[in-house]
Amino acid sequence: MSEGRILIIDDGKGPGGALEMALRMDFESVKSFSNPNLLPFYLKTEKADVAILDVDFSGVREGEERGLYWLREIKRINPRIEVVILLEEEDVMLGERAIEEGAANFAFKPVNNRKLVASLRSVVQLKLMKERCELVELRFEGVKKEILQSEPIIEGSSVPYNRMMHAVTGVIDTPDAILLQGETGSGKKTIARYIHNQSSRRNKLFLEANSLLERETELGGYLFGVKKRNYPTADPDLPGKFQIAEGGTLYIPEVAKIPLSVQEQFLRYMEKGAVEPVGAVRSVPVNVKLLLGTAEDLKSLVGEGVFHEELYRRLSSKAVEIPALRHRVEDIEGIANFFIAQLCAKYHKSTLRMSARTLEELKLNQWPGNISELKLTIEKAVILCEKEVLQPEDFMFRSAAQSHLFKIPDTIEEMEKSMIKKALERHKNNHSAAAAQLGITRQTLYNKIRKYKL
């Protein structure tokens, strides 16, 4: 049985009843009725994919040709229903007019059931295909709208923020590949999306290539595509991320982790605007905006021989520095308030605000995880807070005088001292528990305490 819900409409003189019986074995639903005046009611109450219309109706309105009035009525009431016209062979001109006015097809009477079933199946499949395409398009538009609205730039006033945004503005529509340099969690992906959303490519795809595979061949295929001829297990001309992002923007989060052989492909793309799929004998032209992120010092990696020197030279001339959050202390209040409002809405909480002490604590922290860490910290606090004001204890912060939670020690001795101090504080000077946490003996702990005068 094929998909398809069929409505048969005639004036009681046509083959409606017999046709209904003949089609029931072939479609999921077949119904017929013989009073065209009830057509508006039936079309609003019955779900149908195709209406079979017997055009042998006369005297509907003065000057109206047979059946065309009812065709127009069907299309007016529900334009998504396809219409197949039944007519006499001598009325072929009327059938052509019906198609011009929106009919999907016509068939001659007496009806050849086999041919009619084949025709109806084609009409139904075409209709369902159109609907699926429309659904995909609607979903794509929804996803695109969501992408355009997601991860907005949280405006700041600090000198590092303004310097970054000045650099970003200068590269939005340049065709060159752009390097986004910044610590983990500093917002490189957000800046990449912002560049895309502000560019002339905003209505095209923004694609992130974040599955950096271990094997170079697999990574090459993932990014640049595969030709089936040399790889029988691959789909024919399997496209890579470059081809999928055609016309749009491709963001690669950590270019430092990509092998040298694959880095050379980036150079080829930057020079020729083409990539070479794995197994291909010639390059494939591609047009994407290439954004490459890194938290590493690429210059030092060049010195170590693990990053391509020419690629670094090209990228460094179009680099955007994403400042660490600890260098944007003036912006912390605005960023925190943005996340608080966002997370209150997410967790259906009334709007919370920060106390002055809380803001001071936020500004004193070093935030090695940057904006991502700040957001996670605020999210936990919003979830736990049962009052209207976020206090330092909601964040489990220590006092401002002690707040060196995220300070990175300069020496091994400082790190060891800090770890011992935290363990003692956590276990309220219970030496046995602190030693167990640190993985050392109580005697060793006593020696360390004396050494560091704790």
Keywords:
Rossmann fold; five-stranded parallel β-sheet; about 450 residues; phosphoprotein; single chain; Sigma_54_int_dom_ATP-bd_1; alpha/beta; ATP binding
Report on this model:
47% of the residues lie in helices and 13% in strands. It has 19 helices and 14 strands. The protein has four domains: 2-129, Response regulator (Rossmann fold), CATH 3.40.50.2300; 159-321, P-loop containing nucleotide triphosphate hydrolases (Rossmann fold, 3-Layer(aba) Sandwich); 325-402, Helicase, Ruva Protein, domain 3; 412-452, Orthogonal Bundle (Arc Repressor Mutant, subunit A). Helix 17 (412-426) packs across helix 18 and helix 18 crosses helix 19. Strand 3 (50-54), helix 3 and strand 4 (82-87) form a beta-alpha-beta unit. It has 454 residues and is α/β, with parallel strands linked by helices. Mean pLDDT is 83; it is low at 59-63, 231-236 and 398-408. The termini are far apart. Residues 154-383 form the Sigma-54 factor interaction domain.
Give a short summary of the structure.
This protein is of the alpha/beta class. The chain is built from 19 helices and 14 strands.
- Rough outline: elongated
Low-confidence segments: 59-63, 231-236, 398-408
CATH topology of the largest domain: Rossmann fold
Helix content: 40-55%
- Estimated structural class: alpha/beta
Per CATH, which architecture of the largest domain? 3-Layer(aba) Sandwich
Q: What's the Cα radius of gyration?
A: 34 Å
The CATH class assignment of the largest domain is: Alpha Beta
Pfam family, one: Response_reg
Domain Sigma-54 factor interaction: 154-383
Domain Response regulatory: 5-124
InterPro entries: AAA_lid_NorR, CheY-like_superfamily, Homeodomain-like_sf, HTH_Fis, P-loop_NTPase, Sig_transdc_resp-reg_receiver, Sigma_54_int, Sigma_54_int_dom_ATP-bd_1
